[in-house]
Amino acid sequence: PALHGAELAVSGVAKAFGGNQALRDVSITARPGRVTALIGPNGSGKTTMLNMICGFYRTDAGRITVGGTQLQRLPAHHVARAGVARTFQTPNLPEGVSVLEAVASGRCSTARASLLDAVLRLPRFRRVRDADIAEALRVLELVGMTHLRDAEAVSLPLGMRRLLEVARALVTRPSVLLLDEAASGLDEDEVDRLAELIRRIRDAGGTVLLVEHNFRLILALADEIFVLAHGQVIASGPPEVIERDPRVLSEYLGV
Ligand code: ADP
């Protein structure tokens, strides 16, 4: 399916927790048809940035827009309705649910999500409709998991559950797709499959923002990289530039 990605623009965002300034004056842009990556060492503010975009936390300063619509004052379920979909590092699916049902319910959970649903990821399996099933089948095709449609979702290997997470986000036809550490814990083949899927989403016109530790994956996949350190963007640019930036090498890779 063609994805209608929208531009995500984060501009001058700041966030403190007590006296701890987690983000200061952070500006990031993610465009349709491009893979944008947010990287940085532990504690640099990546998760906080994702949580700000999703509306889990309020900004202290700055603007966050998707396709020109301001998000920074909206609660999480309104952000989801504005087309921002997010995967979580730990796929969380109940037992006894098939792959197809899990994908089809991805749409319902967004349509009906409250803040609590968004945080706890409570699926709404009872409300799956035929239209959702048809869309879920299309997304499973894109993700290359059609043959697994009747398999139990929780029983799949981690790599497949991660792809399933992406499928559940895609079925909402997001204007922005946020991937939180989607490659962590995956073996090389699984990372390759994930990378292939992300490329397909990009080529279909999606806007993808990856928050990722796997530096090699980022270099191979991202069109544009933003590097966070101590809550600030210390470098941004294409992979060829980032991999040679001395500040990035010392801050991020510790060399
Ligand atoms: P990363 O995802 O890059 O590892 P985080 O965004 O998790 O970094 O953390 C950035 C900083 O913000 C850290 O100093 C962390 O302790 C702090 N922080 C993040 N979330 C909270 C929170 N809910 N309450 C207090 N401090 C937090």
UniProtKB/TrEMBL annotation:
The ABC transporter domain sits at 8-255
Location relative to the cell:
Cell membrane
Protein's name in the database: ATP-binding cassette domain-containing protein
**UniProt source species:** Amycolatopsis rhizosphaerae
